[in-house]
Amino acid sequence: MEDLSTWASLASPLLSLATIVYVFLTAGSKKAQADIDAFKASNAEELQVIRSSIDGKSAEIERKLEDHAVRVQSIESDMKHLPDVKSFTDLRLAVAEIKGEAGKQAEVVNGIARTVHRMENFLLTGSKAA
Q1: Burial of 86 (0-12, 13-18, 19+ CB in 10 A)
Q2: Rounded to an integer, what distance in angstroms lies between the CA atom of residue 46 and that of residue 53?
Q3: Are 118 and 110 in contact (CB under 8 A)?
């Protein structure tokens, strides 16, 4: 029992000393926590304004993305109706062929026009020249 009393008398000042050190070390954290709480309270309104601004911009960005999606979809649907490279090349060759045929037809029509002109002159002047 004496040993227990001796240990208790030694532990009591050590426990008091540890408590003093703990209080000394944690006193600054209470002040820091009070400062943090004051900062949060003073800036709560400012944070709310920033959050509402972000929410407004988020909605605007989402609306713009939807608009772009609609535009891309309309462009894709228009692109489906356009000819591809092979079709365009075939079309260009066909047009060139038509131009060639039209040139041949123009020569034939010019020949017929000359003949009609000579017949008209013959009919108008009569057989005087003959």
Answers
A1: exposed
A2: 11
A3: no
Which residues are within 8 A (CB) of 91 and not within 5 positions of it... i.e. 6 or more apart? 83
pTM of the predicted structure, to 2 decimals: 0.35
b/e 14-43 (16+ beta carbons within 10 angstroms → b): eeeeeeeeeeeeeeeeeeeeeeeeeeeeee
Alpha-carbon separation of residue 100 from 24, 35, 40, 104, 105 (angstroms):
104, 91, 84, 6, 9
- Identity of residue 112: I
Give tens-digit pLDDT for 10-47.
Answer: 888 888 888 888 887 877 777 888 888 888 888 887 87
pLDDT in tens, 63-109: 888 999 999 999 988 888 888 889 889 999 999 999 999 989 999 99
- Alpha carbon distances (Å) from 60 to 63, 70, 110: 5, 15, 68
